[in-house]
Design a protein that fits this description.
alpha/beta, Lyase, Ornithine Decarboxylase, Chain A, domain 1, TIM Barrel, 11 helices, 18 strands, 29% helix, 25% strand, binds pyridoxal-5'-phosphate
């Protein structure tokens, strides 16, 4: 299963996009059918006793959530804002509420919702939650988020654990957390939560990590006489933007998982909560070329929009891959390397630096695939008061 970014439907849609009045085009295209198929195949590959949640921080557009809702077991949210949004958008879906720095008001909202479990990040948060749940007399399912060092696991570019970070609790604090839970009849320990890293490209390494989590939880069950139903192994499955074929191999991972879980019927249910890997491939950012110029020996294409719409390239520190849909104009440049920039008055507004193009002219459309996750929603959208991009959603077919 590779990430599909070569959709003919998307190319045709982009080619057919009319101008915004008289203005050059700038748009996000979301291929919801591609998303539906991808999520369905992720789901189908998972062995029994595994659950798939979606981390909405990657992209919480209503149409994206609607497409995913029938295919996932629920949604992971990481702020009060996401919690309210998801409750509004997907009122009947199970929610997981994680992240550090939760306000009392947010904890109270999570407690009040019909189906929301909490990932507790610290002892202090656990005590506050116990008071809030007792105050309203409501039983709440919780997971302790643990920050473990797992020997033999290589770091990725984005580590949330295995080292000092604001996330989760270290193992030494577990006895205190369990003591607090024993005195808190309103809190039910449903399981443990781990999310040590994002950008994992190595399925074998991720399997080792999951095996380690299973072993750790089995040890805690013995040592502390605790029963848990679920082990949430987080998200973090990586996308290789430069070479999508080398992205995380979900099928290989699921095959390995099947072998790993064979004969481990006493283990808790395994849960995953990926974000990027689910939605990255369904999104495309399209910019129309406004101007092409040479400056101190290098070619620049200035296109409509920029990193205030699509911050993924600077956030990742990479040259985002793109393709060109040519218009009717005679090329200004041919067989050149060009830097694609947006309209912002900062030299940081670069989407791809010195990339080869066969031909390029003003009016051509530059299309950035893999723009469906951590893209529009992580961008500094108000900067310079440029208008937002057009949002185009290509409908999903109904699941059979
Ligand atoms: C707790 C938690 N779960 C899931 C995710 C989703 O990660 P990814 O988008 O890399 O799958 C994140 C990302 O920051 C996270 O912090």
């Amino acid at each position: 299963m590779s990430l599909d970014i070569e959709s003919r439907r998307v190319r045709e849609t982009i080619a057919g996009l009319g101008h915004d009045g008289d203005e050059p085009i700038c748009a996000y295209i979301y291929d919801l059918e591609n998303l539906r198929r991808h999520a369905q195949s992720m789901r189908d590959a998972l062995p029994p006793r595994c659950q798939l949640y979606y981390a909405v921080k990657a992209n919480a557009e209503p149409a994206v959530l609607d497409t995913l809702a029938p295919l996932v077991d629920g949604f992971e949210v990481a702020s009060g804002g996401e919690l309210r949004w998801l409750h509004q958008q997907q009122a009947t879906s199970p929610l997981l509420f994680g992240g550090p720095g939760k306000l009392d008001s947010e904890l109270a909202l999570a407690v009040a919702l019909p189906d929301c479990s909490l990932h507790v990040e610290s002892l202090g948060e656990l005590e506050r939650l116990a008071r809030i749940a007792a105050g309203v007399g409501k039983r709440v399912s919780i997971y302790l988020r643990m920050n473990m060092v797992v020997p033999g696991i290589a770091d990725t570019r984005l580590m949330m654990g295995g080292k000092p970070t604001p996330f989760g609790m270290e193992e030494d604090t577990l006895p205190q957390a369990l003591a607090c839970l024993r005195q808190s009849p309103w809190l039910h320990l449903e399981g443990f939560h781990f999310h040590l890293m994002s950008h994992q490209l190595d399925a074998g390494m991720q399997l080792q990590l999951v095996r380690a989590y299973l072993d750790i939880v089995a040890r805690w069950r013995r040592e502390h006489a605790v029963e848990v139903q679920v082990l949430n192994a987080g998200g973090g499955f990586g996308v290789d933007y430069a070479d999508p074929v080398r992205s995380f191999n979900w099928l290989r991972f699921c095959d390995g998982l099947r072998q790993l879980l064979a004969g481990r019927d006493n283990d808790p249910i395994l849960r995953f909560e990926p974000g990027r890997y689910v939605t990255a491939a369904c999104g495309y950012y399209v910019m129309e070329v406004l101007d092409i110029k040479r400056n101190h020996g290098e070619w620049f294409a200035i296109a409509r929009g920029g990193t205030h719409h699509f911050r993924t390239p600077p956030a990742q520190g990479h040259d985002h891959p793109f393709f060109v849909l040519r218009g009717a104009a005679t090329p200004t440049i041919e067989h050149q390397h060009v830097t694609v920039v947006g309209q912002l008055c900062t030299p940081k507004d670069v989407l791809a630096r010195l990339q080869p193009v066969q031909a390029l002219a003003p009016g051509d459309r530059v299309v950035f695939p893999l723009a469906g996750a951590y893209a529009w929603n992580i961008s500094h959208q108000q900067f310079l008061m440029h208008p937002p991009p057009r949002m185009v959603f290509l409908a999903a077919e109904k699941a059979a």
